[in-house]
Amino acid sequence: MRDRVLPGFTDQLGQLFGGLAGTLNKVANEGTASPRRRRLPASPMALSLPTGSASPAR
Question: Is the pTM of this model over 0.70?
């Protein structure tokens, strides 16, 4: 079994995941802007940081 079945199984897995990777890449590429923007819009980013002591708790 090890010498006959498993090599074929690994080949099938390779084909399956190779096709899956190609399909996912195609879908991801369809969701990107084309042509690419020269500049990304800037927006202020507010960070919510806890106030108080910066020393670690004991």
Answer: no
